[in-house]
Every structure is written in C-alpha cells, then in structure tokens.
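Researcher: Quick one. two chains, 594 residues in total.
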Amino acid sequence: MNAHPFMFGPASRQLFGVFHAAGDGRPGTTTVLVCPPFGQEGLRTHRFFKVLAERLARSGIATLRFDFHGAGDSPGDESEGELDGWRRDLCSAHEELRRRVPGGRIVWVGARLGATLAVLAARNGRCDPSRLVLWEPVIDGRRYARLLREHHVVAIDTTFCIPDLVWRRSLANDPGALPEEALGTLLSPTLRTQLGALVPESLPLTALHDTLVLTGPDDEHTAQWAAEQQSRHMPVRLAYFQHRLDWTSDPYPNSAMVPADALNRLQGALHE
Amino acid sequence: MNDMTQYPVQFGPGNALMGMITIPMYRAPADVACLMLNMGANHRVGPRRINVKLAHVLAARGVSSLRFDLGGLGDSDASDSSSDLQTRAVRDLRAGMDLLEGMLGIRKFAIVGMCSGVEHAMTTAATDTRVVALSLFDGYAFPDRRSRWERTLRRALAAPAHPSFAGKAKRWLQRHLLPSHSTKPLPGFFAERKPPEVNAVWFGATMRRLVERKVAVQLLYSGSLHVCDHDRDQLGPFRSEPFAQAVQYEFMRDADHTLCTVRGQQLFLRSVGGWVAACAVGTSPERRSPGTSTSTSTSTSTSPNPLAPVVERPKHDAYVPQ
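Model:
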C-alpha cells in the first residue's frame, strides 16, 4: 500500500486525508486533489476515488483524498455541514498537498457537490489550482435537494416491506421543500439555505485556471451553464460522458462500484 | 469534537488494512474497546457514516474504538485472495484486536456486526477469547411458521399500496426464475449462501458456546426486514433455549436495515452505544481515576504518539452480563 492516512488542518477543524505518493522514480509535476461528493454520493464513490488515486499515483501523479468536516471519517457533526466551511476545508487540503509536493501544479478533480465546492473555492483567491475537472457538478441547489429527497423516498419504499407512506405524501404535497435529511445524512439549516440559493448564476468561473466539465449527454442545464461561461471567455470546455455509476445507490450487482470507463475518463481528463 | 482523539492507522499483513482509532480524551478509557467493520461492501463509515457516529458516542462514554475496512473494501487493500471471505474477515478482526492490544494495552473487545458483519463477528468471537461482547444487527433470523405467516399476511395487505411492489415482484421473479451470472455471489468474495438448516445449527451451537463463555450478546432486528415481532420471534426454535434468555434482544420497529433515516440512526446509536458502553464500563472495576494518566489527559490529535504509555493492563476477569 502506497497510501498514507493522516489528519491535517487547524486543530479546531481537523480533517481526515489519505495521501497517495507518486510511484517510485516517476514523480511528475502534476498533483491531484480529489473533492468528494456529499452524503450517500460520497460514500458511494469512495472506493472509486481510492482506485483512481492509486492509478494516478502509479502514473507519477501524487493524489490527496480527504473528507470534509462532519463528513466521512473527518471529525465534526453532520449538523455543522455548510458550504462556506467546506470551501475552506478544500483550501486547507490544497495547502496540505502543496506542503507535501512543493512546486507542482495542482489539479482539482471534483464530483457532484464536491465539484461545486471546487468552483466556489477556486474563485476566492486563497488557493490556486491550475485546473478544475468537474464531474457532473451541482449547479442548481434546489434541483439537487429535490433529487436527493426523491431518492430518499425511493430508498424508504424499497427498504421497508411495509413502507412508511408519510415520506412519499410529504414529497407530493410540497415537492419544492428542502429536506432536513436525505439518505441517512442530515442537511443543516445553513446548508439548506445555501442550497436554496445555489443557482448557475452564483457559480461564475474565473480565468485563473482551465476547467473541464464532464456531464451526461442529457444534462442540458450543465451544458447551458458551461456555454454561458464560454460566452464570458472563460477557459472552460464541456465534454459529454455517460457512465454506469449510480450516484445514490448501494452497491448492487448491476450498479458498478468502480466502473472502468469512468476511471479511464477521469484519468484521461488530466492529460487533455 | 473535543472530547476524543482520532488516529488513522494502517495494520495487518503488509499494512493492507486501514482504519481509525478513537479514544476518549479527558477520561480513562474503559478496559474494553469496540471494533466496527463493514456492512456489505460499504465503506468503513458504514451505511451513512453510522460507525463514525457510534465511535463518537462511545468515546463520549469513555470507550475506545477501532473502525476499519475489511481487506479489499473501502480504503483497505486485499492482501490475500487464496482464502475465503470468512477466513479473511476473522483474520482482519484479530489483526484489529492485536493492534489495539499493542497500542492501548486493551485485551478485551466488543464487536459491532451489522448484516453480513454478524457472521464475521460471531466467528471471531467463537475463536478468540478476547471478545467479551457482541452487538449483532439484522443477522441470523429463524422465524417460525406463525411468524412467517403473519409477516407474509402483513406484506400482502400492504402490497397494493406499496410503491415498490412492482419492482420488488419483478426482481423476485428474476432471482428465482432467471438466475443470471450477475445475481450469483462470486465464490470467495461475497459470502456464499448456506442452507437455512446449516445456518441454524451453526448459530445455535455458536451462541451456546459464547454465552457459556459469558460473552455478552445483543441481538437487534430492524422493522424494515422483519415487519413484526411479539416475543423474540426472530429466534424461532431457539426462543426457549437458555442462551436466548441470556442475550439482550430488541426489535427495532422504526429502524430500517440500512439505517437510511435519522430516526433509525438515533435508535441504533442509543441502543448499541448504551449497551456497548455498559458492557465496557461494567468490566472494569479497577478502572483508573480520570487524570491518573497525563498522556490521556493532555494528548492531542497532532502529537506524535500519545498512545504508547497511556494504558495499564486490564484484569483478565470474565465478563458478567449486567
């Protein structure tokens, strides 16, 4: 195992990370910081990003994975989760990676809400990624919360032999409400407010770094957002990518945990 | 979280296993530590981070813990593919106990097993006398004919209003009429399904052995899988056995199998956290007073190795169920 688990960040806000050092004799100048998704999507993709980090490390690209405060193995309570704190966590992780591999160019690879946080963190000037790879970023907080809520209701239906229909009725009666919980994860009042305010217009890219957006061919909203950034002459490129990873499911036989096509696509994205 | 210290660790053969030790920061740790392992193929934070939350609850009650990924899951590497899953899981759990024994001096352990983890936990306890307590969630169940009929009747009555009924029925038919490669477990990777009567014989013999050895056992069953329970219904023919009266049995009607709801998680944490803490503290009549170890009271998560000098050797007394 060429991975090293450790805690980092300020004493008041320690984070859990796993550093994958570049393979012996093949250290490159590029390093990668993985920005994981939220909640069940984060747990669902955990193994995927481990394998991706190992692949990258073997090819000479040191990689740092980490958990946001109150998520995964990092200390903190879920009820404290909110975007501003997580944005600062991302910069802490960036600084930690910079400390471990001085001088390299750092690429952020973010998925879902992790990709959104990458956009938010990269434009505040505290940290300086050379490139963003955004895999199906969340650009509409309300739409995202609705999706999580729908999947939560389906999970309840599926799990209980005799379902608790209160969840489904609540969804039908007030489909726009932001959920207090989704798929076993709490959404704090602050996070709900922030998701409610998260719209494509609140996610402008900057010219400080290149951006590659990967999304499904039927995702018109993300494509439109990317086109708007291009119209502002931002260095952003959109690429369509279909995969077999179900973001919110448990691992089932027909829902791959580490789909090879997605691994290859993300690894390739670093060299485009 | 200022009342605990957490240490990521790598251990086992080739340091292939990765986990997190959590110890209480401002009080003497109990003489029993808790081990948590994966539920199915989920990451070590378990279904929706429940093992992290349980580690925090236990630390607040003075109990140290190790949560980790079994080899080949989550952050852990597969170090050996020549033996079957059960053998590897037991070896990994024993490696976890060895680690805590070496680092903390703790020689007695509680294991929290969920779903597929129940078999791993029971097998480990049966072969390693360091295990003094087992909390088993949605493991083996042997409902008798009356219980099965009641469950089936309730399901049937609920089926017309069940939003997932069509999908469930389709999957059931596919499983039983069109068995495909993708629905069959891989030999040696996932646990292979055994006949119910084989499971029953093994469960009964193992439970008798564990209770004779005074291992404390908590059996928990979720409402999502089992629907109803009047009086230890999931134990079926074992209900009248002496060991059934010695275990702590709880039917958690409002908890679901994957702890998908916050309510279910709260119930689980309250029940398992309280039970494990009671077991752990109950075995340590000679517990040190808080503050007798400077390392414990002053350690921080950034200090190099605050664990080494901390712990006194606990007594080897057998656990007596509380």
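The longest strand of chain B covers residues 4-11.
Researcher: Thanks, that's what I needed.
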